[in-house]
Amino acid sequence: AAGSLLKNQEQPFLQTPSLRFPDQVWHVELLPLRRQLYILCAGNGIYCVSLDQQSRLMKQTDGDDKEDACPSSVFPVDADACIVPDVTLCTFTLLNDVLVTLSQAQGQWWMKLHVLLDPDQESQPCRQISQVGFSTCDQTGDDGDALSSHFLPVLCCASAPGTAGPGEGLWCSGGFTLEEPLFSLLFGIDAAMLDSPMILCGFPDGQLCCVPLKALNSSEAVDACSEVAGQVPPVKILHHLEEPVVFIGALRTEHKAPDDPDDQQLFGDSGCDCVVVVGHYGKMVAMKAERGEEAKVPEVREYYLQGPILCAACGGGSRMYYSTHSDISAVDLDWVSNASDPESIDNTAYVLPPVLSPASLSICSVVALSLSSRASEGTLLALSAKGRLMSCDLCSPDDAHPIRLTPEKAGQRIKELLSGIGNVSERVSFLKKAVDQKNRALTSLNQVMNVSAALLSNQDGRKPVTCTVTASWSRLLLRDTWAISCMLENSSECSLEQGWTLCVQLFTSSCAFDEDSVDSATTFTFPIDQLLPGSKREVTLPLGSAEGTKLELPLTVSCALFYSLREILDSASDSYESLDDLLPDGSPGLSPDKEGICLPLSKCTIDILQCLRLDDSTVPGAPPSIATLSDPVETFLKVSRVQSDPSSVEVSDQLLPKAPDALGDEYLPPSVASIKVSSELLKNALKSFCEGCRSLRTLRGSLICLVSRAVWGAAWPRITNVEACGSYVAGLPGCSNIQIPSVRIS
Amino acid sequence: MAQRLHPGGRARSGERSRPRGSKRARREAPAGAGCLRAWTEENDGLAGGWRASRSSGPGRAAQQAARRCRLAFDSLLRKIQGLPAALPSLSLELTVLYNSLLFAVSESDGLVEGEAERINHGLIRVLEACGVSGQDLSTEELWQKVLQDVTTEELCAPLHRLGALQGAVWLAANCLGSVTGLFRLLSDTKGPLPSAHGGENELLALLKAWSVPVEGDTSPLVVQSTKDLKEILWTSAAFLQGLQGLEAGNLPTALSLLQAAASGFCSKRVLAQIYTCIGCCTQQMGKPQTALQHLKRALQVDFQCLSALSQAALVYRQLGETDAELEALALLYKALETPAQEAVSIDPCFLIRTELLVHTPALASLFSRSHPSEVKYLLAQRCLQAGRVGEAVEHYLDLLALLQEGPQHQVPLHGRSALPRIPEVFLEAASALEQLGRYQDAIAVCEEIISRTDDLIPETLRIELDSGAGGEAPGRAGSPSPGIPPQQRESLRCIVWRAAAYLHQGRAWARLGESKEAITRFTRCLNVLLRVQLVSAASIQSSEEMAEALPEAKVLQKIRLLALLGRGSQFQELGRDKEALMNFQHSLQVCPGDPAATSHLLRALWKLNRRQEAAALWQKLHADAAPADGQQEAPGRCVRPYPLYLVSCLKQVNLPHDESLARSLQDYLRTSGQDP
């Protein structure tokens, strides 16, 4: 899934180029001071894109190609734009010129602090200042790994009020300012006195940690792997949610006196008085300063919302919006405003509401939420899973209550609505079924096309779907059987779905290459249920047994893939005529009766050499000295040697291949061997031995030479005579009659 | 017994001096020569290319070249290991493995899990080729089996080379036992060790005794010679063991090992580190002058070795040479202001370096780069302690500015930092300012603490002191004593800081002559302190026991005493002697027998003409003061010193010995016939 990013916010109808990233985009932040966009791309790192550069890019395209009607042109992002290349990066946040990243490596989370440098003066785009490790993922073990593959940690920045003037305040998207008692209570007096913003961090295992931005260091210097006893990093664990944290935000639950205009003005600056953290499965934690007499601690209250929660957003007010798959809901944490007696506000301690009542907004499948304005309840921006950006105007909780209905009217209205819903749902289910069917047919057709295109377009090179034929002896039902096994291997990118059939045709030797005698061939078909990319399937055809029928060799095996079009068209529509419209005449690969698609895979010849059986595993009482030799060539050589020695007839009897009976009288045991030579060896050998030689004879000579030297020359110094005997090797292109030597030991 | 491989002594005839041209001719095209030759050529080409390129020096280009080489060697190794193991190609295979691992270890900065796995695989293939099964054996057992069972001469040199690399991997993982075992196998252990005389470290002796396989012309090229590797192993082993000895407190052994390491083969940076460690060691052995010499040497070798500077400051402090100590600290601060030089990750000449092999927590903590704010604090603190108030004030103000700076200047807040809690830094700064006479500034700094703690302290803080906590030895600051929840403890600290801030404000106003303001501050200070209710269990009786259970309690008490005395004095200034007297009486209740409180009370009583009481007190004071001395606590006890911000207050609260008062008291006693 390649991520692409469309910047289209200020002028919706302006043609803007979009950027394509090498992988999923996980996080985007805007740095308005520098007019830059920071994008975290999964498995790549953080890219920095200048908005000015974007518009330049756009102008260029406008100039070059005025005919281009496409509303958005897609450009791949420049690799140089990657300012923090780090494959382990999970999330980041920005504060003016400081970049805080969180990555996962060596079983630990690492928070790193980078400073963005001025590109005009420095060679690097940023410099790492310090880092701190969180050992949270160790505790979760395997579960943690499983979780972290789905969920990303959440970072955000909380600053104390007055750390900067209102004009040039700390810019930090997703960050918030916390009111004073809460900030000190949550983060401690040291952070407050340092005027240090706090980085809040919610991990997939549910831990909520905080660390002062100015003290982002552990006492260890370089070697972070070994634990130093007594190390106390300034990391504080605020809470443990026990489910993946999806959102950290802050709310203003207490209203300022409305009659004070100055206060209203400063509403944004005075900050929030309540921190909320939301977990994926619906647990929500609110933290607020308690007005108690006893030891000052923040009040922490847990709520349970209906999960799974995908995302959430907070504004400057007391409401938090969160999205599940099916709906966006709003919860209000303003407890005091609901109190009946406004006079008692001062007496009641400002606490959090005991329960929350979510109000539905009836917008489904929203994966990202944002409140356009922090200061007041303004517009809620929602991005749906399919990429639609919606904006919802929110009414303030104070005004605009829905008009009250009388009970009778309400009953009538509900009835109408219910019947309407019934009608609609009926129709929807019907249409959905039809669409699903068509979709399925289209998907399978698409897959078939992909496979066909891959196979047909790739005539000379290695085919993406291959079928390897091997012949071997196996023991079936207590009988030794000679069988052909076809290994179908799918190395293409698409999977072979149901409907595909593997056809194996066997031609006997006499008519192997004769077109007319096709009918005499035997065809075996094997339906393929599903063959995923990269997987293999093996089918075996028993051809004859040791005592059974005579085989005619050589045998030509031809494999093909067949796909029946009837099947999908059956499922997709009732009419058969569409088939002709669908596939015009002369389409390659279409079988004459247009019933399906046939794709030839491979053709090979099995000959007598492959019937030779050299296995000593069936010999129960073989002498250990020979039985330990597992190399067939050596076994073969051993056998040859013993055979020439009449005194050890017994041993040779036991070791003799047992095939000859089934193979016919002309077969002479064991004077022939097939030798497999590693392609690597062959390539090298041919390079050195056979430079310049073109003729077949020389090739044969060199093969003999090569094989004897490469295989036996060193390992078997006692071989004195290498002699060519009548044997047969098939499968070399262009020459069917290369003789390979057998070895006779004197 | 199987014959062991021993590479020494053989094939010395084929030294490296032979011209390279003869290389091609010598290969007698053995079996499968095509592949073998091609692979050998590839290996030699890569290694030769690397050797040629390393003259360009360290840098980004070298790093990239190393990465390319690693990938190329890896792919060559994959090609070779794709075929079943065969004796003729094993020598090449092991060499390629060695080359590839050199790059991998160098790149991975000494994190060597995957590398160990690959050595294992290589050994198993060696055994396979010899027809021995090597499955399910540990790496140590594999080495034993390989070195005992494999007798092929050609494999000897590559196996020894790989053994050296294995030693490096084990050293990096601090597995000294495994390394020793391996080198016992690699060296000819039948004969006695050449230098195994009493006390010499076995591993070092083994390493010295181990004869490096000869890299003749016939062998494939390697990227780092085994001879270099041996030297580096030796230095690393000495350094590592020295560090371990230092950690374990085994100082003489550590010293000799470290001195050995310093004579070894290493980079300047490591040499400076070794000298610094020697400095630490000799300092702990009670030889500060020797320590200083070594630390100076470390700095001469590598000025970037800032730990030597901070160690030197420590030594000077021990010696009481404040000037030198402050100078060292100032130098350290100056050096820290320049950004740290990036450590060279790849040195093209030495892929394996001592830096990569020596990892211990002690080393990491000793050579962790201190933060500028830490050093600045130390400077300020030492100046204040030494009474150099002017300098101290400047340093404190610099420090406060540094703390307010952006996130680029990180502040160490972790437990091992030299920096105390931030409010204490502010209080010390206020104390320094006050001593210098900058009263308004002191008041402003204290105001910051007061405003910050405003919301953090509860109306009442009730702390129940456990009797179990009484047995606990007073730990260092920050270690929570059992029984008191951390939240309460933090609240208590906030109260202490806030009270101390009010105390300083009161004193500053008093100095400014604003008695009324001062009295207000002292009263606020006392009110803050009243919020704490210490409920002690029956077992805790005396204030000493209380102080042991909760160190803050003692500070609290002292602040209360100082505030009462301060308020009393201000009342005296205003001529409200009765109120002053009440305060002094109260202060004596808080700290019974406190000499300062007593003398204040004495004077107040005398002034109010309550001579009889004054005389009684005088006698009591003299009786008590005979054994004890001033504000010094009872000697012999391990007493936690008061916080630095209270020290000056405690000094100044003692009234100067009033000769006239003493004389008149003695006169009075004589006339009333109660001469002591």
TrEMBL record, chain A:
One of its GO terms (cellular component) is Fanconi anaemia nuclear complex. It holds the Pfam family FANCAA. InterPro entries: Faap100. GO terms for biological process: interstrand cross-link repair. This is FA core complex associated protein 100. It comes from Terrapene triunguis. The lineage of its organism: Eukaryota, Metazoa, Chordata, Craniata, Vertebrata. The gene is FAAP100.
